[in-house]
Amino acid sequence: MPKDDPETTALKKELTDLIAKVKAAQEKVADAKLAEKCGDMGDVPKIRFVTKKTLKGHINKVNSVHYSGDSRHCVTGSLDGKLIIWDTWSGNKVQVIPLRSAWVMSVAFAPSGNFVACGGMDNMCTVYDVNNRDATGAAKMVRELAGYEGFLSSCRFLDDTHILTGSGDMKICVWDLEAGKREMDFNAHAGDVVSISLGPDMKTYVTGSVDRTCKLWDVRDEKAKQTFFGHDADVNSVCYHPSGQAFATASEDKTARLFDLRSDQQLGHYTPPGNSGFTSCALSLSGRYLLAGSDDNAVHSWDTLKVVHTGTLNAHENRVTSISVAPNGIAMASCSWDQSVRVWG
């Protein structure tokens, strides 16, 4: 690495001092600890999820899973070059969609259940219409959204006609799917945008990045509303709280955290019994349980209010890459490098 010139060094110091000032101001108004305030609350039971279905069909690492709005179907993307739409109630495959590129990093199911999307190392987001088939019988490809200068790391549907994407070129894009054009395209972070989570009102979203920060955005604005610091390594996953007032994160720094939007700072700090980084996170429908997929092949659970570990879900035989809680809160899907997808309930 070349040495920084004096101007760059001065700017870096100024930035570090500003971050320290912000943290000091936050600590000044943090008049209580979450665990202390909630100490007299009743304990939640240890998490007792069991594997209801093991979905087998992929023949390589499964990198991403996402539930449909109906809480029954989910879509998974794997390095075997297939998207599979599953009926999680029966455990059957509904559709198998062959991809042009096997390097899938993110999948998304439209809340309506009409479309699925995926993207990864092919530097594009591909959208499929679940209700229309092509000549081979697979879901019809309706859009290939290209023009990224880095891998596609995350995608989420705003509705059937708009999709939000984050990518390795540090950008966030909002696409109009009917026109096939970008409505917004802007630099969001100082590193890869790794994860996106939409708020309950679908009007705001949070992002996590390799630059160790998380940001809150309005769907129609290119300027971040709030920026959150705290992690010491890549933020691999973010998940909006069902209340719309907070969000959870999972990081390579071996912690999961809870940030509050109203107080503009971190409320909870969650560590696993072992010593492994986190790949993904999710919150229960009530927001009381925080779940995080881990490098140690397990999904860990905490009581968000009392900040205590409430259990470990062990079944996968390799790294858990992604988890998704059904919108109705009844089940959770997890996928892993062990080539399987599990439905817990």
From TrEMBL:
Listed SUPFAM superfamilies: WD40 repeat-like
Keywords: Coiled coil, Repeat, Transducer, WD repeat
Gene Ontology biological process terms in this record: signal transduction
Pfam families, per database record: WD40_Gbeta
UniProt repeat feature WD, residue ranges: 55-96, 145-185, 186-227, 228-269, 313-345
Coiled coil regions in record: 8-35
InterPro entries hit by this protein: G-protein_beta_1-5 (IPR016346), WD40/YVTN_repeat-like_dom_sf (IPR015943), WD40_G-protein_beta-like (IPR001632), WD40_PAC1 (IPR020472), WD40_repeat_CS (IPR019775), WD40_repeat_dom_sf (IPR036322), WD40_rpt (IPR001680)
Superkingdom, taxonomy of origin: Eukaryota
Family indicated by similarity: Belongs to the WD repeat G protein beta family.
PANTHER family tied to this protein: GUANINE NUCLEOTIDE-BINDING PROTEIN BETA G PROTEIN BETA (PTHR19850)
Protein name listed in UniProt: Guanine nucleotide-binding protein subunit beta-2
Species the sequence originates in: Papilio machaon (Old World swallowtail butterfly)
Phylogenetic placement of the source organism: Eukaryota, Metazoa, Ecdysozoa, Arthropoda, Hexapoda
